[in-house]
Write a structure and sequence with these properties.
Elements (H helix, E strand, L loop, with lengths): L3 E3 L1 H6 L14 E5 L2 E9 L5 E6 L5 E5 L3 E5 L6 E6 L11 E7 L12 E11 L2 E12 L3 E13 L9 E3 L4 E5 L18 E6 L15 E4 L4 E6 L5 E5 L6 E6 L17 H9 L7 E3 L5 E7 L10 E6 L5 E6 L6 E7 L6 E6 L5 E5 L15 E5 L18 E3 L6 E5 L6 E6 L4 E5 L5 E5 L6 E9 L2 E9 L1
Antiparallel strand pairs: 1-31, 2-3, 3-26, 4-5, 5-6, 6-7, 8-9, 9-10, 10-11, 12-13, 13-14, 14-15, 16-17, 17-18, 18-19, 20-21, 21-22, 22-23, 24-25, 25-26, 27-28, 28-31, 29-30, 29-32, 32-33
Length: 471
């Protein structure tokens, strides 16, 4: 397989609407800086969308709380149901929750297994509500099958269940759990509740977890419902507070996030003592009164420049999309800006490689006021955006690289046909050098191990390096 091939037709395609024949009617528009963002409906008449994930097949993977797992065609909005999980218990906030999709690992897995699909859901065991993590095998011919319970018997109740999933580049899985209204368990390392857990893809415990033989990655959480990793490896989570102090946290391995001894920042005498003694990581920002923060993603695409380098947060109670601007270090949120009112409760969010943002509403969850077409998947896009090969900077030279993180392929939009591309590891060692013949090229990533790399483009106008994360 060639590492680099020309993709001139792809260059034109990335700038076109996914539905090339027609665009969905605009429901509203709003400004993001100098950009006009249009919101439209991709899908209607859903029931409590809980998770949206942009899959490696370039489809949107979706869970609905009642138990249905589907793939959604982003070009047409067609919902392709895969499975309704038979033992899901939907009551209160419980039901089918988080989902993650990845290619099987290790490579010894039979190739018939196209993807592994991880889901978290609540179920009833002898009259008691519990929670479990299950891995399915997906094939294009057979759909979802071969369920394997990786972690079960997790204490649950009708509220405070978590549970987002996040696949890490080292082939491990993070899973958030709520405290299930048993607040003291959040500080108990032996309990699965009130934690972010880390597991191998087969459910075993990674050898380098903070506590040997323990799935704990972080502790002291109340009800974390958002989880995202940035291209440089930083991880962030959103978390529901009680009647005060909803939080956005920077997740650092082994850290304590305080609950129930600390609400929000360490600013009371007892909290200061506890924080000092227990390695507590304070939140980056908090909300009082609470807003019910849910799905969390990262935006770094030229289609909407005003959102680049920011976290985007789907909000339930306050029914908004909130932009959280990060500083250069990622250790502070410098600004909070709200968008997209009027669509009710927003729970799930993902971003496509074309820079479109997809948001799932949650108005049929028992706490909303559903419209006739709810629940919906909304699309936010800059309809005026056309990807171009040249994006001038102060030096007249730039290039774009997406998606990032990437798996098998990444697209490079180059400033000219004479550009040379060099791929190096973080030690500066040259792995590959190529001279593409067109303005758009495709990086074939199959030969690269998961990790971080540097892609350098050299041309007559100068040189520029972008970081690429391979999952």
């Amino acid at each position: 397989m060639k590492f680099l091939r020309n993709a001139l037709l792809a260059f034109w395609a990335v700038g076109l609407p996914l539905t090339a024949c027609a665009q969905a009617p605009a429901l509203t528009t709003f400004p993001v800086g100098a950009t006009t963002v249009t919101a439209s409906a991709l899908v209607t008449n859903l029931s409590t969308v809980w998770e949206l994930v942009w899959g490696p097949d370039n489809f949107i993977w979706m869970t609905e709380r009642g138990g249905r797992i589907s793939r959604v065609d982003p070009a047409t909005g067609q919902v392709l149901p895969l499975l309704t999980v038979s033992d899901v218990t939907e009551t209160g906030e419980s039901g089918l929750l988080g989902l993650a999709v990845t290619e099987p690992f290790p490579a010894a897995v039979p190739q018939a297994a196209t993807y592994w699909v991880f889901v978290v859901y609540n179920y009833t065991d002898q009259g008691v509500l519990k929670e479990k993590l299950v891995r399915y095998t997906y094939t294009s011919s057979g759909g979802l099958g071969s369920p394997q319970v990786l972690l079960g018997n997790i204490t649950a109740t009708t509220t405070h269940s978590g549970s987002r999933l996040l696949v890490l580049p080292d082939h491990t899985l993070l899973m958030t759990t709520g405290d299930a209204q048993q607040t003291s368990e959040a500080q108990n390392p032996a309990s699965l509740n009130g934690k972010i857990l880390r597991l191998n893809f087969d459910g075993t415990i990674p050898a380098n977890n903070p506590i040997a033989g323990n799935r704990l990655y972080t502790l002291g959480h109340r009800n974390p419902q958002g989880l995202v990793q940035l291209p440089d490896g930083r991880i962030y989570s959103s978390e529901h507070g009680p009647s005060n102090d909803d939080e956005i946290n920077k997740i650092e391995v082994g850290r304590n996030y305080g609950w129930p001894n600390v609400e929000g920042n360490c600013n009371l005498p007892a909290e200061l003592t506890f924080c000092s003694a227990n390695n507590v990581r304070e939140p980056l920002t908090t909300w009082t009164p609470t807003i019910a923060p849910a799905g969390l993603t990262y935006y770094d695409h030229p289609a909407i420049p005003g959102w680049r380098g920011s976290l985007l947060l789907a909000v339930l109670k306050n029914s908004k999309l909130t932009q959280l601007t990060l500083d250069a270090t990622g250790n502070a949120i410098t600004n909070r800006t709200d968008f997209l009112s009027g669509f009710g409760r927003l729970r799930a969010i993902c971003v496509s490689p074309q820079g479109r943002v997809y948001i799932g509403t949650s108005n049929r969850d028992g706490r909303g006021s559903p419209a006739a077409t709810d629940d919906r998947i909304l699309v936010l896009e800059n309809r005026a955006y056309v990807a171009t090969a040249t994006r001038p900077t102060a030096s007249g030279f730039a290039f774009e690289l997406f998606p990032n993180p990437a798996r098998r392929q990444a697209t490079v939009q180059l400033p000219g046909p004479t550009t040379r591309l060099t791929v190096r590891d973080l030690l500066g060692r040259t792995l590959l050098t190529f001279r593409p013949t067109g303005p758009v090229a495709t990086l074939e990533l199959a030969t690269l191990r998961p990790g971080s790399y540097l892609v350098q483009a050299d041309g007559p106008a100068g040189s520029l390096t972008r970081k690429l994360v391979v999952e």
